[in-house]
Amino acid sequence: MQQTDLDDEFDEGESFETDMNTKAIESAVEKMLAAFGEDPEREGLLRTPRRVARMYPELLAGYRVDPEKLVNNALFNVTYEDMVIVRDIEFYSLCEHHMLPFLGRAHVAYIPNGKVLGLSKIPRIVDMYARRLQVQERMTRQIADFLSDLLHPQGVAVVVEALHMCAMMRGVKKHDARMTTSAMHGGFRKNIATRQEFLDNISRGAAPLKI
Asked: pTM for this one?
């Protein structure tokens, strides 16, 4: 099998529907390569613009997620009034300032008020907001606000921990610096004991973030 065929085989991946102008992305990447002083026609770079253009619909798929379809009737009437926590949800995103990745874990909790959400939907909600050009602070608030509007629970809490490549690869070059953001609604904001129970739960047995 020729090398170009191998490239195609291993570069297929999952197909993502998109309304992005992938031809414009290809053209822009080719111009960037030339601006870097590279030769866009050399063997290793010939297919790079195409690969990059096919990559962004996946990395930025969150813009095209329909929240109603995402939830997909996964709301259930349940009599349960204690804390529900989904912790260590891995995510990756792109910083909107430099378009470099930031990645880490999200911890999400809510106290039901007659309804619970199917377990798999919470990581999907995290991904919906992570797969956009983002800042961590806004993403954290968006996740909390979405769950609050969807479930009308007694409270919602979200904590996000991430490593940012824009701080690791450039600028201050601090490889171990991590950013932690939080958003609290309802009982998590008003009740110190409730908030502390959540924080104790997500800190128990937590592994360090690694690239």
From this structure: 0.89
> Do residues 183 and 140 lie in contact, with contact meaning Cβ atoms separated by under 8 Å?
yes
The per-residue pLDDT for range 148-192, each reduced to its tens digit, is: 999 999 999 999 999 999 999 988 888 888 999 999 999 999 999
- The verdict on whether 107 is a catalytic residue reads no
Does the annotation mark 175 as catalytic? no
- Using the 8-state DSSP alphabet, how is residue 151 labeled? H
Strands of the sheet containing 101-111, edge to edge, are 133-134, 84-95, 101-111, 155-164, 178-186
Active-site hit among 30, 154, 161, 164: 164
Flag whether 180 is in a domain.
yes
Among residues 41, 58, 90, 96, which one is catalytic?
96
Domain, as residue range, for 108: 67-203
- For residue 95, indicate whether it is catalytic: yes
**CATH number, domain containing residue 127:** 3.30.1130.10
- What's the CATH number where 29 sits? 1.10.286.10
98 is catalytic: yes
27 shares its domain with 127: no
97 is catalytic: yes
Q: What is the pLDDT of residues 94-135, one digit of tens each?
A: 999 999 999 999 999 999 999 999 999 999 999 999 999 999
